[in-house]
Amino acid sequence: MSDKLSFDAQLRLFVYRHMLRHEKSPTVAQMATSLGASSKKVLASLARLSGSHAFMQQESGELWRAAPFSCIPTPFPVRVGGKSWFGNCIWDALGIPAMLGKDARIGASCGCCNYDMSMEIKGGKLRSGAGLIHIAVPAREWYKDVAFT
Amino acid sequence: MLLFRSEQHIERWCRQWNRPRGGTFSLAQGWKLAQLWYGDRLDPQWRPKSAPEAESVFREVGLVGEFWELGK
Predict the structure, then answer these.
(1) Secondary structure of residue B69 in the 3-state scheme
(2) Residue contact B39–A98, C-beta within 8 A
(3) Distance between B52 CA and the closest CA of chain A, angstroms
(4) A52 — contact with chain B (CB < 8 Å)?
(5) Distances A12 to A54, A83, A102, A123 between C-alpha atoms, Å
(6) Host H or E run for residue A86
(7) Which of A21, A40, A142, B72 is the most exposed place for a label (fewest CB within 10 A)?
(8) Domains in chain A and their CATH numbers?
């Protein structure tokens, strides 16, 4: 990792690399140990990174969102090769193969009736799956209640 | 943000949850949006998109109108 990067940038990349390697987000303690920093410094950095809502923290300070990944299970599982993660929503679930540039199988179902709407990304294209994405909240209000959005 | 089988299922969901109709786009648009939004996320120099940059992405995907405006 380049020493030219700010601590926030180093932490952001560490979180993504850990998530990709281990299929789960690192704890604050793991971040602190791996980056040779105090938990206080890590928590302050996570708070700054959460300012853009790309990262979001639980009340405990641990991560619950490192977009497009969810750090907790959701109804949007994404499988890439032999690894799997969860997206926060259908946009984020699609964001995982978009971010990685890899084929993926995304589990999803109709928000109304739970009908299976799993889909596949292959060769950079949406190979299967039809449907409509509905977002109930106008863009300017997305982050007032991210869990609902 | 949820996925639905059809317009009818969106309307039913809105009635069930007493929510006004929001913004709707196709899954194909969603894939394009995801590519534009997340394609650079592993870049060490990544930074959050400004509101005008985000609105530009929305326009590129065909998401236009007041619903997709982020404000100043």
Answers:
(1) coil
(2) yes
(3) 12
(4) yes
(5) 10, 21, 21, 28
(6) strand A83-87
(7) B72
(8) 7-66 (1.10.10.10), 67-149 (3.30.450.410)
Q: How many domains does chain B have?
A: 1
Tokens of B55: 């609105």
Residue B1, in any domain of the structure: no
Length of chain B measured in residues: 72
The position carrying tokens 């909240």 is A137
- Closest chain B C-alpha to A64 CA, distance in angstroms: 17
Query: Do residue B10 and residue A134 have CB atoms under 8 angstroms apart?
Result: yes
Domain encompassing residue B54: 7-68
B15: CB partners within 8 A, 6+ apart: none
Q: Is A11 exposed, middle or buried (0-12, 13-18, 19+ CB in 10 A)?
A: buried
Note down pLDDT in tens along chain A; length 149 residues. Answer: 445 789 999 999 999 999 999 999 999 999 999 999 999 999 999 999 998 788 999 999 999 999 999 999 999 999 999 999 999 999 999 999 999 999 999 999 999 999 999 999 999 999 876 899 999 888 887 766 655 55
This complex has an ipTM of 0.93
